[in-house]
Amino acid sequence: MGRSRRTLPEELLLLALDPATGTTAQPQSLDLGLAGAQLVELALAGRIAPDGDRIAVVVPRPTGDPTLDCALELLRRRGAPVRAVHWIGGPRLGLRQVYLSHLERCGMVAAVPGQMCGVLPTTRYQATDTAISREIRSRLDSAIRTGVPPDPRTAALAALAHAVGLGKHLYPGNEGRSSRSRLRDLIRHDPMGGLVAHAVMDVQNGAAAQPRRGPATAGRQAGPAVRATAEPARGVPMQPRRGSMARAVAH
């Protein structure tokens, strides 16, 4: 996988990054969305495929993206298809910070150190090229405005944005209600994105331990909820803590 095209986790994170504050919207649910975005990206690359409500590795060959390849290898080591809700709901260590540091190394964001309450060191992130964020946003806006079925990548991005609660960040207030509704409806245009988005919402709603009831009912009317606490790390792609990754991120 070359670097000429941004991955879905990168796009989801850039979409969540507030250009005014340098913080990310929905920080606690965003890790779940990023884990889901990894699955969709691997599916688009032909490495994994849905098997009912499970994810199966079909081509274990690396993609060339180190973070995605960590996820692919962990999926391969499972040996058998894993339920999407279990993979996404597995405790994870700072996937949001992993991708923020990755975007910084790629030159897409710049880290701005600061302090919280004048004492605690924090780091905010500013996009270095706002045209990239505008292009990502315009794809969603176009799909919402025109009603034309979007490409699978944009449909999956919309589904994930809805699942983690970015709708109220992107289209706030009463005037954004219809746009939020159409953002939710875009979930039906990509089966893999829909599967993953429903799994993200199931985890937030505490349904990770329960079997899914089937595509006709699972996840329907589920709204994104924010988890109160972060979870310990287990079974997710991990990157060495170095450089900017050691800095705290302001919420």
Automatic annotation (TrEMBL):
Keywords: Golgi apparatus, Lipid-binding, Membrane. Residues 207-251 are annotated as: Disordered. It is found in: Golgi apparatus membrane. It is a peripheral membrane protein. GO terms for cellular component: cytoplasm; endomembrane system. GO terms for molecular function: phosphatidylinositol-4-phosphate binding. This is GPP34 family phosphoprotein. InterPro entries: GPP34-like, GPP34-like_sf. Coiled coil: none annotated. It holds the Pfam family GPP34. It comes from the Bacteria.
